[in-house]
Amino acid sequence: MSDKETEYKWQIASQADFEGIKEALSSFDYSCALSAPNLLDTYFDTPDSALSAEKSALRLRRIKLAGRTRYELTFKSASSIVDGLARRREITMPLNCANRKEALKKFRAEASALNPKAVNLKPIFSIENKRRVWYIRAKDFEAELSFDDCLIKARRRQRMLEAEFEFKNGKMSSFKAFAARLAERAGLKAAVKSKVATARGLLAEDKINV
Amino acid sequence: MAYKINPDVCVNCGACESACPVGAISEQNDKRAIDAAKCIDCGSCAGTCPVSAIAQN
């Protein structure tokens, strides 16, 4: 179980931007492995939106990869962002379940154990994500570069593209230097809104329009 | 649409409608049906159906 997430999020406007990052990466010294999971992330909150109020999030993730399906629970605390680098406490645990019905049951039980406020949970939105991941191993750090092609479902739908560069282990200073050079060469800009913030924005607009 | 109600199995009990967090399920011709445009694929309906009439497409 990991307990921290440290990552850059970059705006992506089109598929061409993904290709631009891959091209920029070709000039770096690293090795990598690739993966392309299909993710379905369902976010939950209490009836009085206690988790949104404290800027935390609870997620049930379904991961389909290479013909196998598995489920994970993730609790994310509010994040702090400095120079485009977001840090937050994040707890992820596998839910060893055969199907979604079992996963939902286990998710609710584990969620309330993680956060006492997480009771009477209701799904509030989902995000379908066709993710492509580059597991990058550089000289003195390891990281994951993810290209996300998402469909946010929060009553209304919104497509969103994003790139994330997440530190895994090694020297943080080397990771930051790598990220800075990559952002410069590929012309990347920090994401203005996360996927979760975008979904919450859609929900808020719906409330205003009612 | 990720979830669909099998009308041949549905007993129209309404449990799924109560469980749906986005109001995507309503009664149509004495059965329940899912509005694909509203559904967020959370699976709450399938989890609550007493006769397993709801499954992913």
State the gist of this model.
Chain A has 210 residues and is α+β, with helices and mostly antiparallel strands. Helices cover 29% and strands 47% of the residues of chain A. Chain A starts with a strand and ends with a helix.
Characterization of this structure:
- The complex is a heterodimer of chains A (210) and B (57).
- In chain A, helix 1 (15-25) crosses helix 4.
- In chain A, strands 1-7-5-4-3-8-9-10 form an eight-stranded antiparallel beta barrel.
- Chain A contains five helices and ten strands.
- In chain A, strand 9 (141-154) and strand 10 form a beta hairpin.
- Chain A is an alpha+beta fold.
- Helix content of chain B is 18%, strand content 25%.
- In chain B, the strands form two sheets. Chain B has a two-stranded antiparallel ribbon with strand order 1-4. Chain B has a two-stranded antiparallel sheet with strand order 2-3.
- Chain B is of the alpha+beta class and 57 residues long.
- Chain B contains two helices and four strands, in the order βαββαβ.
- Chain B has helices at residues 15-19, 44-48, and strands at residues 3-5, 25-28, 31-34, 54-56.
- The A-B interface holds A 40, 42, 100-101, 104-105, 122-126, 128, 153-155 and B 21-22, 38-44, 46-47, 56.
